[in-house]
What does this fold into?
Amino acid sequence: MTQPTSIRQVVENGLCIGCGLCEALAPARWRMAYTPEGRLRPLALAAGDDADILAACPGAVAEALPEPAPQEDGIWGKYHGMTRAWAADPDIRFRAATGGILTALGAYLLSSGKARFVLHCASDPAAPMQSTWVMSETPQDVIHACGSRYGPSDTLAGLEAALARGEPFAVIAKPCDAGAIRQRAKSDPRIDALVVAVLVMVCGGASDLGKSRAVLDEFDVDERDLTLFRYRGYGNPGPTRIETRDGMAFEKTYLDMWADESGWRIQSRCKICPDAIGEAADLAAADIWPGGAPVGEDAGFNGVISRSARGQALLDAAVADGAVRQDKALTPRMFDDFQPHQVRKKQKLAARLRGLQKAGQPVFAHEGLRIDALDTRDIQEEQGTLDRANAGRFTETMPTEIE
Ligand SMILES: Cc1cc2nc3c(=O)[nH]c(=O)nc-3n(C[C@H](O)[C@H](O)[C@H](O)COP(=O)(O)OP(=O)(O)OC[C@H]3O[C@@H](n4cnc5c(N)ncnc54)[C@H](O)[C@@H]3O)c2cc1C
Ligand code: SF4
Ligand code: SF4
It folds into this structure.
């Protein structure tokens, strides 16, 4: 496999997910900026050597946690436990995306003194449809930022600022962000010394902002008039809700929001994501709707996969101290039913990567993610990806100015 050898190659070959690491590691050379399509991508400010960024960039490398675990599954990888769980605090459970596990664990790490702050993302107060990285200092701050944000997020743009504080902290982010943190830890010893937990959501893909703009268009709302853009939560899954300065409110159900797959505008790195299930994280949280989609609202239940001994210990401590409730063990085959799209993606990935390579495009290196073992030699999938690549569907342009 040919890997990208520059940030430009990562972006131009559709391998960038806009994680923000470029800006964190080299703020004089890179600044995250929106492209006209509504993707966050690194904008070049100056020339320089990007070898340190490429060594951790999710567009160039992806790797599972190397440590062994007591359980291993062909699809779901290594794990210490799989359980059904939710936030014990009913307010967190209601407000959060699913059952509030990520928020409850983040808040618990702060209230128990295990972490001084949580690096994650939240709605940008100045532009509520967009997300911005934040360092939440109190449990209330973590709760304030709860909920899934289905647009671009560059949480890792805050990584250097977080490390520079020299205090223990947790990260809540996407699986690709977790991978970048682990890779970066190989050359930055502060990460293993200071990051007490990396918590992720199982991730079906990040839409570009065009998906959110389409919601505004539907209700004839100008982005500048927004005071709230909540993608889900306040129920499970809860509605997508927008509010405006003049007191208007509009809602769409989760099923309406995601009914038409052709309008999802999922970014290209997500279509070839080697680890959307959090194999580089300490713990991953998911939805557990049978068949993969909700049939209505429920009280909020997360499927939780503890990936590391540290993740399992955190979950056990949060249960013991009353911050989290769990009621039954889950199995990999149950997760197959909850997440059929993740199973398909894992099984089709090798063919998609071959298609890209046949089109002459570089792809990321991968390790420990069972991509070759799961290869179904799907010729149609390979040809489809080759055709899409030849049609320019994996080709992007670097941003040239701040949108
Ligand atoms: C882009 C995206 C795709 C998803 N796809 C799937 C899927 O395929 N299958 C599935 O089971 N679940 C998926 N989810 C996850 C699901 O919606 C819940 O986030 C997950 O179950 C955790 O629920 P929770 O109640 O514990 O989260 P909460 O307690 O509400 O906490 C969510 C946390 O995630 C952080 N966060 C939210 N959005 C982002 C983002 N875009 N980037 C980085 N951090 C973010 C917030 O800062 C917050 O700390 C997806 C979520 C996102 C954001
Ligand atoms: S994926 Fe992250 S590190 Fe890689 S080019 Fe994009 S913003 Fe930079
Ligand atoms: S699908 Fe993969 S690349 Fe896309 S946002 Fe999710 S974890 Fe990142």
Q: What stands out?
A: The chain has a mean pLDDT of 97. Residues 96-103, 106, 120-122, 145-150, 153, 155, 172-174, 201-204, 206, 233, 285-287, 302, 339 surround flavin-adenine dinucleotide (ligand 1) (CB under 6 Å).
